Amino acid sequence: MPEIYLNQETTINHPDIVEFLRLCDQVRGQGYMTIPLIQNRPFLSYWPTLILNRWDAEKQDFFYSYWGSGLAAVYGMDLSWKYIKRGEFPQTENIFWQAHHDVMTQLKPVYLATSIHWLNKDFQQLNAVILPLERNGTVSETLAYVSFDQKGS
Fold first, then answer.
1. Is pTM beyond 0.70 here?
2. What is the CATH number of domain 4-150?
3. Which DSSP letter does residue 77 get?
4. Per-residue exposure over 68-81, b if at least 16 CB sit within 10 Å of its own CB, e if not
5. How far, CA to CA in Å, does 42 sit from each of 32, 133, 134, 145?
């Protein structure tokens, strides 16, 4: 199981992450990201690697309400409407759950980095940022952007 690193400088300063956050800052002003903001043309190129997570208070878990098509291609599955804590990879699931929980409770970004080596994919490094997502005036969801570095880049 690969290590997952939190809030590393290399991820915080990753060019793709920096560019995504710059766009978020431009559109949101002093508020939080919202669904209508990411449904605009400037975000179109990011949709394939975006993840939206909603908090389910009854299950005390997050479920993927949107799993981008690019992520489905890399992972070989669409996780839309599945929960983070599914029991398939408990260690990884706990880290992801905690990261999303921290974003919602601390209302600040969390950065993740890990290497991925499975199914002979062309990607070896994943960098992601998770942001608070507001709906109906309350932060009750998260927005994640994932960037993959290809082998040799």
1. yes
2. 3.30.450.20
3. S
4. beebeebeeeebee
5. 17, 17, 19, 14
